[in-house]
């Protein structure tokens, strides 16, 4: 065994006394977000409530593609001020931040992958023919409330609870969890999803769309393609227990 990889537990568990509600890619689907949070609240009320710490963890990609990125970002910015609520950074948040900094390559990728929907939700016009990448970036940044931008800038790239590691896209197989590159945490796909390697923890991720929450020995995929399928999913992890919560339009 490589020295940086922890042995695989027979049954992974969260940190002692901790329950985690991890939510997949929202992509501007505000009504689904509200419906899922109501479902989570009902689930908590109906449970034994023995967990001493409850975490609400968004796995990134809260913006783009869907019709209500502004509402999603505003709502999650407000939630993030509460104890136990964390929003990880996804590739779409990374592209938005780099676009605001004037990165022309990021702007091109972002606008081809749903960034135009975020612009529309904030009432921001598309790039003009007489506008360079820095001017466009400044215009976008000026139109988005500073609180929203600050939340995205401060968003962590990953989180952990006991035998679970949370990241938007996944991890690079064979690389220690504490040495992962941000690009992989935001963007990796087949190299991760096609691997059966043990990563040192069970990786809970979004980014790569699945029909239903997909639980493997080394990873759990929870992005059920909300903007396309109308399904938004969450996994509740409490000790060794796992429960799937999904809402539909």
From TrEMBL:
Question: What residue range is the signal peptide?
Answer: none
Query: Where do the coiled-coil regions begin and end?
Result: none
CDD domains referenced in this protein's UniProt entry, alphabetically: MPP_PPP_family
Q: Tell me which residues make up the Calcineurin-like phosphoesterase domain.
A: 19-211
What is the official name of this protein in its record? Serine/threonine protein phosphatase
* Taxonomic path: Bacteria, Pseudomonadati, Pseudomonadota, Alphaproteobacteria, Sphingomonadales
